[in-house]
Amino acid sequence: MYNGGKIIIGLIIFLGFSTLPFLFTMGKAVAKPELSLDTPEIQRMVEKKCVESKEYMKTEHMVMLNEWRDAVVRDGTKLYKAKDGKIYDMSLQNTCMKCHSSKKKFCDQCHNYTAVKPYCWDCHIAPQEGT
Amino acid sequence: MGINRRDFLKIAGISTLAGIGGAAGLTLAKSGLLEASQYIDDPKGLKGKRWAIAIDISKFKTPEDYKRVMDVCHSIHNVPEIGNTKEEIKWIWTESYESTFASQEYANPYIKDNLKKKPFIVMCNHCDNPPCVRVCPTQATYKRKSDGIVMMDMHRCIGCRFCMAGCPYGARSFNWRDPRPFIKKSNPEFPMRMKGVVEKCTLCYERLAIGLKPACVEASSGGMIFGDLNDPNSDVRRVLSSHYSIRRKPELGTSPCVFYILGGQ
Amino acid sequence: MLETAFKGSRTYWAWILFLLTVIAIGLFFYLRQFTVGLGVTGMSRDVSWGFYISQFTFLVGIAASGVMVVLPYYLHNYKAFGKITILGEFLAIPAVIMCMLFIFVDLGQPLRVLNVILHPSINSVMFYDMIVLSGYLLLNILVGWTALSSERKGVAPPKWLKFFVILSIIWAPSIHTVTAFLYSGLPGKYFWMSALLAAQFLTSAFASGPALLILLALIVRKFTKFDPGKEAIQALSKIVTYFLLTSVFFLGLKLFTSFYSQIPSYAHSIVYLYAGLDGYNKLVPLMWISNILIVIALVLLVIPQLRKNEALLAIASVCVFIGLWIDKGFGLIVGGFVPNSFKQITEYWPTLPETSITLGVWAIGFLILTILYKVAVSVREEVGDIDFHH
Question: Is there a contact between B189 and A93 (Cβ–Cβ < 8 Å)?
Fold first, then answer.
């Protein structure tokens, strides 16, 4: 190979850099996030149930929040009729966070784990962390 | 190898397109999940086709009358107090007669002294033909079809400030830095804003939705009259038909929906 | 062809290194602006556009002015511009890129810039500006690069290129017209509210752009073996002269309408810029420097004997460029915001971070310009050699 030595050294450096994130965390087990649904507000609920099913909320909450946002801000609608017929005020601050009253224990758990940084809290006010 | 570069590029191109198409299809299918649920209007919400405010300036007698109106708006909407005029953020404030009605001022410098010295309340005019909406490149500011409110979608604003150049009333403020440290006491029911977006009065859309009048109107003890211009029996139409009123810079064709009653009874 | 940009003299590398340093300083301050917000600039609630948007406006003109060499060469077969055309096209490319960068650094939420495409608003002039600018960029890259590659191979440019050349000629005025529409359609901004604005933009652009091109041609001739030709430079000087005259004439038209009508709103900004208003006069010295430079340039350009002297022509070109830069790259935008909607005055002056970021963007432009010109010149030197051996 013409200039083989240089190329191989270059490749090794490149591989080193590009795998750096993996090399750094190799062997370190990062604890799976444990969601705390155990807020005083949720404990007080008779039927412990979110707006939609748990599975749906787990995978689609971001889609739902985006749609709620557009519905409230852009279309001027206010209420959400869930599949089970219950009606909710579409509001991150005034509905979601009323039950999930700890952003740290609820939102941040998974978002930190998956390194997702939604900009919700740049404007929206998170509830006061209790203890 | 039975594949040359040209063929490889073709296959790569087509599969990329297919991939994008597939992803788009998947997104569409996903959003269908919400279909069983639906958005409904709050029956409590105030219904109007073209909201407007008439300001009866004769009802504003003491500095306290003005302060009450401005303070309630700025506190419930988490409007920061930046503390310097260059970066100032305001939704509702006062200006002199001369500044408020710049064009009228050229016409008549001999107007009643008590008017000339009086502060006037200024805010977004919620124009029927809003230039800010016309110039916004992302529809982040838009006129609500249902009731004519000129709204701001802070999630979408890119901070180009075209709307600030377009607004002939100076109603818009830009977040030159993170506003949160400048909010002394925040209202947990309403969001704040982030740096780099434009904000202004949204005619208390969040209050109208639950059946309340705008906060300034409520705090004005009769100095500000709110209602639907399309309804001949509304408070605002009644007061406009019985009093002489003017608007700011009507010659620009923006059709402001904030009216000023100068004479009182 | 790009490989030719990696071989150069000491001076070449010193220049590149200098540009990279300026870019690095600009980037440093941009990161600060990115984290703190646009509060690091001198802009305010009242003067909500400043240095960045001014530079953008000025540079759209520079980009459009490439047409001043492309048009005579391709449509009128004006042979003298044969060598300089590529310099015109390659000037347009960094100019448009700088325009885009200046818009980008002016955004409060730069990461959301794609919203312009995701949620397009066909009422907004900004939407059309985005289309014409990116179109013009692509056209110039396509035309310039293809023409140069053909030249290097010693073959005639492909036939289809003619279509894109003509398209780019029609396209050029559109970019500056649309840019003028950003301002001239805003109710209540009386300084900009003029049907003449787009015409003023184009004439001042067709003076300042070719003036810059004259300077660049002289520099290229001094530092390389490539000579764009005396005739081409002289022809450019005539273009600068006529468009500068038209520009001054248009300014006169605007002054007449604004002051003879005596409608206060039309006069305020002009009075602020040239004489100061209510005791506020931060921009007055700058605007008069601009006026004096333009007068000097006019004297040097209008008298043919002076214009033919290349040293004097160089001075005249510098005067035109700086004079019009102050007028359009500073006064025009800031002046439109003074006084504000309440007839109150907030003055504007760029801050250190703002100036550094501005210089950084200019340095990026000059870096691209240098690389493109290096490629063009190397190809010319190479082709020249081949001809010699034949």
Answer: yes
A15-19: Cβ within 8 A, 24+ apart: none
Chain B contact present for A93, CB below 8 A: yes
B158 CB within 8 Å of a chain C CB = yes
Measured between CA atoms, how close is B136 to chain C, in angstroms?
6
Residues in chain C within 8 Å Cβ distance of B252: 187-188
| B186 in reach of chain A (CB within 8 A) | yes
Task: Identify the H or E element spanning C68.
Answer: helix C67-75
| B76, B160, B161, C98, C243 from C134: Cα distances, Å | 43, 18, 21, 12, 26
Neighbours of chain A (3+ CB pairs under 8 A): B
Considering CB atoms only, which of B87, B134, B197 is closest to C45?
Answer: B87
Residue B227: Cβ within 10 Å count = 23
Query: Across the interface, which of A52, A90, A93 has its CB nearest the CB of B188?
Result: A93
Residue C51: band (very low, low, confident or very high) from pLDDT cuts 50, 70, 90: very high
pLDDT classification of B163: cutoffs 50, 70, 90: very high
Q: Which residues pair with C280 in a beta bridge?
A: C277
Element (H, E) at B238: helix B235-242
**Contact state of B175 with C108 under an 8 Å Cβ cutoff:** yes
Contacts of C347 in chain B (CB under 8 A): none
Q: Which residue in B173, B22, B205 sits closest to B90, CA to CA?
A: B173
Put simply, the answer to whether B100 touches C119 (Cβ < 8 Å) is: no
Mutate to test the interface with B, among C333, C343, C348, C354 (most CBs of B within 10 A): C343
Question: What is the band of C385 on the pLDDT scale with cuts at 50, 70, 90?
Answer: very low
Determine whether the interchain pair C45/B135 forms a contact, defined as Cβ–Cβ distance below 8 Å: no
- The answer to whether A61 contacts chain B (CB < 8 Å) is no
Residue of B26, B28, B35, B39 to mutate when probing chain A, most A C-beta within 10 A? B39
pLDDT greater than 80 at residue C249: yes
C256 falls in which pLDDT band (50, 70, 90)? very high
Please compute the mean of the pLDDT values over residues C223-231 and round it to a whole number: 88
Band of residue B24 on the pLDDT scale cut at 50, 70, 90? low
pLDDT, tens digit, 9 for 90 and up, residues A33-45: 777 777 888 888 8
Question: What pairs with residue B54 in β-bridges?
Answer: B225, B259
Interface check for A53 against chain B (CB to CB < 8 A): the answer is no
Please state, in angstroms and rounded to a whole number, the distance separating the CA atoms of residues C106 and C154: 44
Compute the C-alpha angle B169/B174/B179, nearest 5°. Answer: 135
ipTM of the complex: 0.90
pLDDT in tens, A67-122: 999 988 888 888 998 888 889 999 999 899 988 988 888 888 889 888 899 999 99
The pTM for the full model equals: 0.90
Q: What distance in Å separates the CA atoms of residue C342 and residue C327, rounded to the nearest whole number?
A: 25
Residues 200-229 of B with CB under 8 A from A: 205, 209-210
- C100-156 confidence digits (pLDDT tens): 999 999 999 999 999 999 999 999 999 999 999 999 999 999 998 898 888 888 888
In order of B82, C2, C15, the CA distances from C377 in angstroms are: 54, 12, 16
DSSP C286-342: HHHHHHHHHHHHHHHHHSHHHHHSHHHHHHHHHHHHHHHHHIIIIIHHHHHTSS-TT
- From chain B residues 94-123, the ones with a CB under 8 A of any chain C CB are 95, 98-100, 102-103, 106
pLDDT digits (tens, 9 = 90+) for A6-33: 899 999 999 999 988 888 877 777 777 7
CB pair distance less than 8 Å for B176 and C37 = yes
* CA nearest neighbour of C59 among C361, C348, C283: C361
- Which of C370, C324, C372, C382 is CA-nearest to residue C89? C372
